[in-house]
Amino acid sequence: MTLTETTHPSATPTAQAAAPAAPRLASDFFGFQGRLSGPEQAAALRVRTFMETEVRPVADGFWSRAEFPRHLIPALAELGLLGAFVPEVRHFENTAVYRGWIALELARVDAGVATFVGVQSGLAMGAVHVGGSPEQQAWWLPRMATGEVVGAFGLTEPLSGSDSARGLRTTARREGDHWVLRGEKRWIGNGTFADVVVVLAKDVADGQVKGFLVATDSPGFTASKIEDKISLRSVQNADIMLDDVVVPEDRRLPGIRSFRDVATVLRLTRCDVAWQAIGIAVGAYEAALAYALQREQFGKPIAAHQLVQDLLARCVGNITASIALCLQASAMQDEGVQRDEHSALAKSFATSRMRETVGWAREILGGNGIVLEHGVARFFADAEAIYSYEGTRDMNSLIVGRAITGHQAFV
């Protein structure tokens, strides 16, 4: 069995007529890929080809060395993956469903590359798109879309994660025509090699969260790589220190005036993280299926054993349910009716099912499931980071619970 099959008959006639359809992933059991338009399917096929030919051969090595393949950034930009949702810089008009599917395609091969794109395109560029002035958008977004400028997003702190709405300790103090930032940030993706970091800090004058474009060569700014991770090893997470960093007023993002504005940026990306989780589940499942078809025990492939087939069927069920949920959530984003609880449920559900799926995939491989060469171990490890970032399962469940009951139970 191959990892791709012919396009599912559920693909829309319009999508099929507009451009040659990309081969459907075998893990796409219900043919959801057919919901993409023709141009979107063609773009998805280009991304899949790039990930298979350029990323898969090097992914394990960079993961093992805890290095990021920075040489791939120009190609990611050429594929239109940086700023795909920003009208001013995107390569073609596309949907949130397409962007979610692309997150799946990236994470299916390498969650580290998917995370880089999510940070650059979703969080850093998203913050400029949502909160930047027209002048800031005109200067920063094109440069970030080409990869000339690498961005990062500084929200999480050593003592503030899930409670960022209230618990930010990094401060910003206005002094004439500039601001002075002081504090710490942690787990900042791209942080060790970014050119600019969107830093969220609390204004000491009014207590509101504001956003700043902080150049990483600013005096008082230091970024230190977080070492010894067991998950997303290729992602360059940093501890950042801001020791009275001076930021000009024209580097403040005027559209970010409170945490409510920050939440708007996070809302743009949370559903994409759910799609990333599906991609990790798909990658682990595909590796487990390929292994099961060639590994023999008791005189036949283990894929012919009932218990292995049961695990594979469970994996497909989780993947299918997660795609269906995320597809609807992304479609609601396209329609402008998605609310926080919708993206929260998608992220909570998809990451929980991902965690189950990678566990079952590793189980199919037995002891071989914990070494990189058989294709499951990296997904198994990376799933743990995806499970936690962009809102833990617990916090997203409480967002959904608030919508269901009308009662807030965060504290």
From TrEMBL:
The EC number(s) this enzyme carries: 1.3.8.6
Domain annotation Acyl-CoA dehydrogenase/oxidase N-terminal: ranges: 42-148
Acyl-CoA dehydrogenase/oxidase C-terminal domain boundaries: 262-404
Domain Acyl-CoA oxidase/dehydrogenase middle intervals: 152-245
Record region (Disordered): 1-20
Uppermost EC category: oxidoreductase
Keywords: FAD, Flavoprotein, Oxidoreductase
GO molecular function, one term: glutaryl-CoA dehydrogenase activity
Cofactor(s) the protein requires to work: FAD
PANTHER family named among the record's database cross-references: ACYL-COA DEHYDROGENASE, ACYL-COENZYME A OXIDASE
Family recorded in the similarity comment: Belongs to the acyl-CoA dehydrogenase family.
Name used for this protein in its record: Glutaryl-CoA dehydrogenase
Native source species: Microlunatus capsulatus
Organism lineage string: Bacteria, Bacillati, Actinomycetota, Actinomycetes, Propionibacteriales
